[in-house]
Amino acid sequence: MPREAEPSLSERTFTLQAISEGLRLDSRKLDQFRPLELSFGDEYGVADVKLGKTRVLAKVSAEVTVPFSDRPFDGIFQITSELGPMVAPSFEVNRPTETEILLARLLEKTIRRSGALDTESLCLIAGQKCWSVRVDLHILSADGNLIDSSCLAVVAALRHFRRPDTSIEGETLTIYTAAEREPVPLSWLHSPFCTTFDFFGEDGEIVLVDTTWLEEQLRVGSVTFSLNKHGEICQISKLGGKPVEATLIIQCAQMALAKSKEFTDLVDARLAEDAKRRDKGGLMAELSAENER
Amino acid sequence: MASPTAELSHLPKTDGSANFAYGGYTITAAVNGPVEAQRRDENPFEALVDVNVRPAAGVGGTGERQLEAILQPALRHLIPVRNFPRCVIQVTLQVMETPENAYVNPKVMQPRLNLGIIPALLHAAILGLLTAAVPMKTVASATCLVITDADGSSVKVDPTPAEIDQARSVHVLGFTAGRDLLLAESEGSFSADEWATVLQTAEKVCCRSQEAGGDAEMGGYGAESENVQQFMRSVLEAKAAEGLHWR
C-alpha cells in the first residue's frame, strides 16, 4: 500500500513559523479544541464522536462466558481498536501499526486499569459464569488527536450501554431479553478522560492541544494525561520526544483537569438528552428493575 | 419500513465513502482505488478487488470472510478490472448497526451466514465506488426475500431478523441495471418452482423503476419495499448538483 505523504518542506516551515507566532492554520487558539460532537445511536452502547475531521465510533457488547480460572470473581472487560484502510490506504488489514498499539495500550491503562468499570459486578456465578463486556473502537477517519476522541467515545459508550438483566435462583441463571425486562446499566465507578498536549519550538516551550494530523507530524514531543473530574490521575504518558520543563508539565496537568471537567459535563449532558429521548411517556422509571447504588 | 438514507463522501481521507442505512442495517463503505497493488497480490492483467467486511462488534471471522467471498465476485463484475492492471481497488465495509430483535439476546460471535445484510453491504459498496469515481460498467441492487409458509406461496421482501429466523428459506438476489442476474444466494429448503417465484419477485423489486408505471402492475409484494436503484440515482444526482452549485 502507498505510504502516507509526509509534510513538504514549505508546509513544515510555514506551519512551524505560524505556531511560533501563536497562530494555527485553522485559526484556533493554541489551547482551543476543535468543535466536539458526541451522539448516541439507536442501540444502547453506541457512541459516535466527531472532533473536527477525526471521527470515532465505539460500540459496546456483552455476552455471558466462563471467567478466567485465575480470577473467578471478576468479569471480563476488553477494549479493542483497529485502524484499517478506512482511515487511510496506508493502513493494512491485520497488520497493527505503532499508532494503533499505542492507542490500545493507553486506553487500556486509562479505562481498564484505573478501575472505571467494576469488573466484580460482572460476575454472575463465581468461577462459572460472568459477563464479558467488550468495546469495539472503529476509527472512521483520523485527523489528529485520536487518543482524546477515542477515550471520550469509549467512556461515553460504556456509560450509555445497558446489559440484559439477570436473576439467579439457586443454581439456575436466567438472562432476560429486552422484551421481558428493561436492560440495566453497567456499574460505573468514575469517568477518566485523556487530554493530549503537544510541544513545539526549540525546547518544546510552546504547548498545543487537539492537534491536527499535520501538526502532529511536526511536534517535538507530546504528553497525555488521563484523569477524572476529581483530579485523580490515572496515568501520564510521555513517550520519547524532547525533554520538557517540570513546571510546564504541572501547568498542563491543571489544563487537563479543566478539560476533564468539561468532557464530563458534555457526556453527562448528552446522556441526559438521550435518556429523555428514549423515555417516551415517562415509563422508564417504572420499567427499570435496578436498585439505586 | 422506513425509506433508505445515505450520506456520501463523509470520510475525508479515503477516495470515496458512503453511509447507507435501510431496514435497520447501517453500513459505512470506504473505497480506495485504483491504487498500486503490493507485489504479492498484483495481477499483471487486471485489478484486484479487495473487499473487507468488519463487524460492528467482535473481530471478523468466518462469517465475514464468506460475505466477502460473495460480494467480491459481484463487485468484480461491475468494475472494468481489465482497465487497471497491477492495481487494487480496496472496499472496506464497516457494519455500524444491525436490526435488533427484542426477543433474543445478541451474541457477539456468530459464525453463521447472515444473508439479510448482503443487500445493504452491496448498496453501500456501490455508493462508495461511485463517489470514489471508480469506473463501472453498470450499477446493481440486491434484495432479500424469505419463504415463510409450507406451500411456498407467500414470498416476503425485506424480512426482519425474526422473520429470517422463522423462515423456511432465505434468498438474496442481485440484479444489474440491465436486469441481468448478478448474485444469487439461498439458504434453507425450497423447490425449483419456489426459486423461480423468488427470482421473478426479486427481479420486479430490483428493476421496478425501469418500466414506466411499473408500480401499478406490482400488486402485493414489493409495494412496501423501496426501489434502491432509483434511490441511489437520486442521492448521486443531489450530490452532483451540490458539487456544481458554484456554476
UniProtKB/TrEMBL annotation, chain A:
One family name in Pfam for this protein: RNase_PH_C
Keywords carried by this UniProt record: Cytoplasm, Exosome, Nucleus, RNA-binding, rRNA processing
GO molecular function, one term: mRNA 3'-UTR AU-rich region binding
Domain Exoribonuclease phosphorolytic: 32-164, 191-258
Matching CDD domains: RNase_PH_RRP45
The keyword Nucleus belongs to this UniProt entry's keyword annotation: yes
InterPro entries: ExoRNase_PH_dom1, ExoRNase_PH_dom2, ExoRNase_PH_dom2_sf, Exosome_comp_Rrp42_subfam, PNPase/RNase_PH_dom_sf, Ribosomal_Su5_D2-typ_SF, Rrp45
Record localization: Cytoplasm; Nucleus, Nucleolus
Keyword hit for Cytoplasm: yes
GO cellular component terms attached to this protein's record: cytoplasmic exosome (RNase complex); nuclear exosome (RNase complex); nucleolus
One of the protein's GO biological processes: U4 snRNA 3'-end processing
Gene3D superfamilies (alphabetical): GHMP Kinase, N-terminal domain (3.30.230.70)
Entry's family note: Belongs to the RNase PH family.
The protein, known as: Exosome complex component RRP45
Source organism per UniProt: Trichoderma asperellum (strain ATCC 204424 / CBS 433.97 / NBRC 101777)
UniProtKB/TrEMBL annotation, chain B:
Cellular component, GO, one term: cytoplasmic exosome (RNase complex)
Cited InterPro entries: ExoRNase_PH_dom1, ExoRNase_PH_dom2_sf, PNPase/RNase_PH_dom_sf, Ribosomal_Su5_D2-typ_SF, RNase_PH
Subcellular location: Nucleus
GO biological process annotation, one example: U4 snRNA 3'-end processing
Domain Exoribonuclease phosphorolytic: 6-135
SUPFAM superfamilies documented for this protein: Ribonuclease PH domain 2-like (SSF55666), Ribosomal protein S5 domain 2-like (SSF54211)
UniProt entry keywords in alphabetical sequence: Exosome, Nucleus, rRNA processing
Stored Pfam families: RNase_PH
GO molecular function: RNA binding
Family per record: Belongs to the RNase PH family.
Name used for this protein in its record: Exoribonuclease phosphorolytic domain-containing protein
Upper taxonomic lineage: Eukaryota, Fungi, Dikarya, Ascomycota, Pezizomycotina
